[in-house]
Write a structure and sequence with these properties.
This protein is an alpha/beta fold. The chain has ten helices and seven strands. The strands form two sheets. A five-stranded mixed β-sheet has the order 4-3-6-5-7. Helix 3 runs antiparallel to helix 5. The relative contact order is 0.15.
């Protein structure tokens, strides 16, 4: 049921995002440009309210964290899917754009883990995967499989969290983390200044210019440790 997504040519027909707090919160999913069509905005507001209503009974409660943790996926499924679609060099955001959103749109904008073709391979996750959407999907998969057998069940946000507006109840990961026995941070080495021998980042004369460089700006898109959400969502004992 996923093979047609391999070419990265399939996208959701109505791919929109919601940036809460922004003056123009509704955005086109493909390029983040503002949505100004009032008909589209009204339609998307209805979809957003429907998603929020669907989670209203459990939002903010332990039951919701349990429901989310049960959206973990087996690594044999993760490997099979990655091989079938040859996603090793996809960026994680591409997995969302070309796989998750097109497939879930037609099923009521559900979570990817709730799709009929995915649900048999889900269960209560024991491993929480932290990663960056700008990183390579293959690096995430490799991290998920480290030291494991096919029975390992891992929690990956792009599969467990509803990737549509109205998903606020899904965005508190701490309850999911609390239910897992371990967390893995997928962070592949980056060639350049960060990994160069003899570069002393403790020295302000080196660190300051680097933090203002284009090289650092690019690194922040693929290193979880540079992202504010990582610090916000991760318990202090894991930092």
């Amino acid at each position: 049921p996923f093979a047609h997504c391999a070419s990265k040519s399939t996208v959701a027909a109505k791919d929109y995002k919601y940036w809460g707090g922004d003056e123009q919160p509704w955005r086109n999913g493909l390029d983040d440009s503002p949505v100004t069509d009032q008909g589209i905005i009204a339609s998307e507001e209805r979809h957003k309210l429907a998603a929020e209503a669907d989670d209203h009974a459990t939002a903010g409660k332990p039951a919701h964290a349990t429901k989310l943790r049960c959206c973990g996926v087996r690594i044999d499924f993760l490997l099979a899917l990655t091989y079938e679609l040859d996603m090793w060099y996809w960026r994680t955001w591409e997995v969302v754009q070309y796989l998750v959103k097109p497939l879930t749109e037609a099923k009521g904008r559900c979570r990817f883990a709730d799709l009929a073709g995915v649900r048999p391979f889900t269960g209560a996750a024991t491993i929480f995967l932290s990663h960056c959407w700008g990183g390579r999907w293959g690096d995430l998969v490799a991290a998920a499989c480290t030291g494991a057998d096919t029975r390992r069940i891992v929690w990956i946000d792009v599969f467990a969290v509803r990737q549509w507006p109205g998903n606020g109840a899904d965005l508190d990961f701490r309850g999911v983390l609390a239910g897992c026995t371990a967390a893995i941070v997928a962070a592949a080495p980056i060639d350049g200044t960060l990994t160069a021998e003899g570069i002393g980042m403790a020295r302000e004369s080196i660190r300051g210019p680097f933090l203002k460089s284009d090289e650092y700006a690019a690194a922040t898109k693929i290193l979880p440790f540079c992202r504010l959400w990582y610090v916000h969502a991760t318990p202090p004992q894991l930092l």
